[in-house]
Design a protein that fits this description.
Blueprint (H helix, E strand, L loop, with lengths): L12 H33 L31 E5 L2 E5 L61 E3 L1 H5 L6 E3 L14 H12 L5 H10 L6 H28 L3 E10 L11 E9 L8 E6 L4 H7 L5 E4 L12 E4 L2 H13 L3 H4 L3 H18 L8 H21 L9 H11 L1 H5 L12 H17 L5 H19 L4 H11 L31
Parallel strand pairs: 5-8, 8-9
Antiparallel strand pairs: 1-2, 3-4, 5-6, 6-7
Helix pairs in contact: 3-15, 5-14, 7-9, 7-11, 9-10
């Protein structure tokens, strides 16, 4: 028989409470470490998508991911085939474009081959088979030599009179003293800021074609052209932007190497400001700043009065005459993260799942009101959205015993702290439920940054901000960035004194700049 070696120790109530509190603290720290491990695994091995249907599809919630809704026509559909049903797989249904140049090559038999094998007579065409193929021709590089003739009167010269001399007018080049053309700079700029191809890659590609053009020269072209012709256009767009009554704002990091009085590793920032969906002429502007201080937003928006959609960053909240509108996408995202760190068997019915159900219902209402006019939308929001918001915030405030440093605790605290801003979108029919419009606009810059990594100098970062602004505004107005830039670099140097820069604004450009236009080499 084994002896029982257990020993009873008597402690005071105060010591017991202290140990109990210590155990609770250790358990809280253990749960936090488990969360961090789960988050680390998700970042390393999981999908980066924020879509959440797969996480809790089994819960039959009404939540739909607004940022990544799929076209219902592309979803799996059931097809009846005689006595059974099968699911049609989603596929990639490519098709040849209808708006590009098409040429025809006819393949005919020779006279000898057309002779009838029976009687020797020439056979006639009775039908044809047509096949189509997509040809891709690499970008053409060529030199344009402009010759401007000078004219004089031969008769006056023979009569020894004053001989009139007339020169052919020569338009101003995009950069004086340079062999850069409007087409060349537009192409380099489009390749870098639309296709995200760094200048060193473009340098290598040109070298393969026998063109020795250094990235330093290309960089100087882009900075000079941006400063001369795009910055005035940027400033005019800024004037028009600040006259709007509803804007969106966001910011992201940027590394600038040669920054004065600042270590290389220090982060700089690219701030973004853009018009809302209620504006007929969209404008997207980037603003390079060496830091993320509130004074940057105050400086840019000092002439603006109205609603500003932002995330929870407090730098925007001290600006005079600006009313902040919160972002439900950010609030929802935190509950998505809280749900992801839970074991799968604990997700259904969890606090995070209930919060996401509330968020989903809010987005469902907005989807239904999408086609309503800005005048009618507030009435429906007061009727449908406000009771749901009241219930959601009352439920969130009733939650107890949630570790404040946990993902769920942070999500709940963010929701409660942001309540006044998250409620604000129901006040005006022009306002939106989230700030995704700004996030979508800043995404091209983030993708580009992954390719060219950094800006070399502050002047380069400013030129990049200006170029991105002009290009993204052109895209928002359904313009072909290359055709639009080519138009600006051709016309801007030759504007007359009585001509306004407004004729170069994206919504005032010729039809050949629209997205259906093909790239011309003329």
């Amino acid at each position: 028989m084994s002896k029982n070696n257990s020993e009873t120790v008597t402690i005071s109530k105060a010591e017991y409470e202290s140990l109990k509190s210590h155990c609770a603290q250790l358990e809280s720290e253990l749960n936090w470490l488990k969360e961090q491990l789960q988050i680390s695994k998700k970042k390393t091995f999981g999908s980066n998508s924020e879509r959440t249907e797969q996480l809790y599809e089994q819960m039959s919630l009404f939540f739909n991911e607004a940022e990544a809704l799929e076209d219902t026509e592309n979803r799996n559909t059931e097809i009846t085939v005689e006595q059974y049903k099968r699911k049609q797989k989603n596929g990639c249904f490519d098709k040849l474009p209808e708006n590009i140049e098409t040429y025809t090559v006819e393949h005919k038999l020779s006279e000898e081959e057309r002779k009838c094998p029976e009687c020797g007579e020439e056979m006639e065409v009775i039908g044809k088979k047509v096949t189509k193929h997509l040809e891709m021709i690499p970008a053409q590089v060529r030199i344009r030599e402009d010759v401007y003739f000078t004219y004089a009167c031969k008769k006056c010269h023979e009569n020894e009179a004053d001989t009139p001399v007339i020169e052919t007018p020569q338009p101003n080049p995009v950069i004086k003293g340079s062999f850069a053309s409007a087409q060349a700079i537009a192409h380099l700029m489009t390749q870098k800021f639309v296709m995200h191809s760094p200048l060193y890659r473009q340098e290598q590609e040109l070298k393969q074609r026998g063109i020795e053009l250094s990235r330093q020269t290309m960089s100087n072209w882009l900075i000079t052209a941006s400063k001369l012709w795009l910055e005035p256009l940027y400033e005019r767009m800024k004037e028009l932007l600040l006259k709007e009554s509803v804007l969106h704002a966001d910011e992201t990091t940027l590394q600038v190497l040669k920054t004065k009085d600042k270590p290389t590793a220090t982060k700089s920032y690219m701030w973004l400001y853009r018009t809302s969906g209620c504006c007929k002429t969209p404008i997207v502007l980037y603003d390079y700043r060496p830091n993320r201080k509130a004074e940057n937003a105050e400086s840019f928006l000092k002439e603006f009065k109205g609603y500003l959609h932002t995330d929870g960053y407090k730098a925007y909240r001290g600006i005079d005459d600006v009313t902040i509108v919160g972002c439900w996408a950010h609030a929802r995202r935190r509950f998505c993260e809280a749900l992801e760190v839970l074991p799968e068997e604990q997700r259904k019915g969890s606090t995070a799942a209930i919060a996401l159900d509330y968020c989903g219902k809010l987005y469902v209402i907005e989807k239904k009101l999408k086609d309503e006019s800005p005048e009618d939308r507030p009435k429906e929001r007061q009727k449908q959205t406000k009771p749901l918001l009241d219930a959601f915030f009352a439920w969130a405030k009733s939650l107890r015993n949630i570790a404040p440093k946990s993902k769920l605790g942070k999500a709940v605290n963010y929701l409660i702290e942001e309540e006044p801003y998250l409620r604000r979108y129901i006040e005006d029919g022009r306002l939106e439920i989230d700030n995704n419009r700004a996030e979508r606009s800043i995404k091209p810059f983030v993708i580009g940054r992954k390719n060219w990594l950094f800006a070399n100098t502050p002047s380069g970062a400013k030129a990049s901000a200006t170029a991105f602004s002009i290009i993204e505004t052109a895209k928002e107005n359904d313009l072909d960035p290359y055709e639009y830039l080519k138009c600006v670099f051709t016309k801007a140097p030759n504007l007359q004194e009585n001509e306004s820069i407004d004729i170069l604004l994206p919504w005032n450009t010729p039809d050949n700049c629209h997205t259906k236009a093909t790239h011309s080499t003329e």
